[in-house]
Amino acid sequence: MTLASSQPPDQGDDWPRIIQGGMGVGVSHWPLAHAVSAAGQLGVVSGTALDQILVRRLQDGDPGGHVRRALDHFPSRPLADRIWRQFHVPGGKGATASYPALPLYTVPMDRDAEALCVVANFVEVWLARERHGRPVGINYLEKIQIPHLPSFYGAMLAGVDYVLMGAGIPLKVPGALDLLARHEPASYPLVVTGALPGEPYVTTFTPRDVLPHDLPPLARPRFLAIVASATLAATLAKRASGHVDGFIVEGPTAGGHNAPPRGRLQLDASGQPVYGERDRVDLAAVRDLGRPFWLAGGRGRAGALREALAAGAVGVQVGTAFAYCDESGLRDDYKQAVLADVRRGAARVSTDAVASPTGFPFKVVHTAGSVSEPDVYAARPRICDLGYLREVYRQPDGGLGYRCAAEPASLYAAKGGTVEDTVGRKCLCNALVSSGGHPQVRAGRHVEPGIVTSGDALLDLASFLPPGTSRYTAADVVRVLLEG
Ligand SMILES: Cc1cc2nc3c(=O)[nH]c(=O)nc-3n(C[C@H](O)[C@H](O)[C@H](O)COP(=O)(O)O)c2cc1C
Q1: Would you say the CB of residue 328 lies under 6 angstroms from ligand 1?
Q2: Of 52, 182, 287, 294, which has the fewest Cβ atoms less than 10 A away?
Q3: Per-residue pLDDT of the chain (484 residues; tens, 9 = 90+)
């Protein structure tokens, strides 16, 4: 088993200049993170829905034998082999067959689901770290709380060097990492809609339930919180359950989910959230916290690193520029279609205030065949069968219920939700898993359409595409950013 080499927090000058941002689902898969880390910067795998991705890779026959190679290094051979036997289809499942349905997460988490999470996170990080010996990170969305603890543990078993987290307030993550590094049980507080004051809803995880034998202590990864305000950074620095090693300061131009604007949500004429002065991050206040920080959002261009260093940051985090390089996991048809639009100066991104069931604004690229297009979206029946973004709510008897604003409106309403809340919501779970190259196929012929997300600065990608070229690599991005 690989143990990460770690330095005490805040010591040493080995912070990366460039962090390749985590991009779910499966866009920053292990080949991308591997390429970025091998190029001397920090590659970050997405930790979102990794159980689903592992199962679908196995169902596709494990092309290249990568999953098998990683499984051979998992600390429990019986568990690794069990998962292999359960899901691997020699030669692949075939284009018209469906992927199997996994049970949706509930609290407490099913023991098999926990084990699958541990193994899936291990595999992704192990492959991203293979051979080059450089640090690798993993990114999670705080909002997807139920699988956090087994996911951290699996990533740590593979020696992950950094855990990065956005889309929420990760106050309790650092302490959980400390406990898991010692293989001790940990708990994580759960946001439950309608919970009564003082009701302590938590998820718990006991590493011994998955790996019942003694293991040496694990290296505690550095923890970087992704924030959109100096206030949140200060709160985390003061009140987190353990050490926060640094901050990624992300603005509303970044790809993926964005923090909502402060104050009452206002939309412009095209329905996009309006950000103002109050949303500008006070970088002097972040600097005063004395922790390393990186700037994210529109930094994927020559010169941006120099500007960030001048502002006191140690570097930049970049997503969009890496999402379209050869090594990214974004489906090639979408990649090529968007790059063709970039070359013609016609690529279009907007911020959809309602698409995401999380309620956070979500950046959407308008590209043919994806659910960003009204006709494609309207033709898809509302189905919720992955459930990562489900909201946990308190039922009248104190038990927990689960609902998603993108599920059928009548079902959502029957669970206490309001029909207005369902309007315009998209099943990001299925759409993002589809864009990551593993679309579900229903009844032998209905293929789940995808969705593409990118930052506002999508047109900047033209600088990576000199005339006559239609592709570029992660190393090209790193080179351009460092040269600038
Ligand atoms: C395709 C894509 C998917 C993303 N997914 C996530 C995610 O799952 N979690 C996250 O914290 N950030 C996510 N992001 C944000 C990136 O990690 C990064 O912070 C952001 O892209 C930086 O801004 P830029 O897109 O202007 O370079 C995503 C960005 C893109 C482009």
Answers
A1: no
A2: 182
A3: 433 333 333 445 789 999 999 999 999 999 999 999 999 999 999 999 999 999 999 999 999 999 999 999 999 999 999 999 999 999 999 999 999 999 999 999 999 999 999 999 999 999 999 999 999 999 999 999 999 999 999 999 999 999 999 989 999 999 999 999 999 999 999 999 999 998 889 999 999 999 988 999 999 999 999 999 999 999 999 999 999 999 999 999 999 999 999 999 999 999 999 999 999 999 999 999 999 999 999 999 999 999 999 999 999 999 999 999 999 999 999 999 999 999 999 999 999 999 999 999 999 999 999 999 999 999 999 999 999 999 999 999 999 999 999 999 999 999 999 999 999 999 999 999 999 999 999 999 999 999 999 999 999 999 998 888 889 999 999 999 999 7
- Is 329's C-beta closer than 6 angstroms to any atom of ligand 1? no
Tell me how far apart the alpha carbons of residues 387 and 104 are, in angstroms, rounded to a whole number. Answer: 6
Instruction: State the CB neighbour count (10 A cutoff) for residue 371.
Output: 25
Centroid of ligand 1 to alpha carbon of 254 (angstroms): 6
Give the three-class secondary structure for 164.
strand
339 CB within 6 A, ligand 1: no
> Residue 296: CB within 6 Å of ligand 1?
yes
Q: Which one of 320, 389, 452, 480 would you pick to mutate in the ligand 1 pocket, going by the greatest count of ligand atoms within 8 A of its CB?
A: 320
Distance CA 335, CA 472 (A): 11
Ligand 1 pocket member 435 (CB < 6 A): no
Report which of 157, 207, 163 is spatially closest to residue 184, judged by C-alpha positions: 207
Ligand 1 pocket member 318 (CB < 6 A): yes
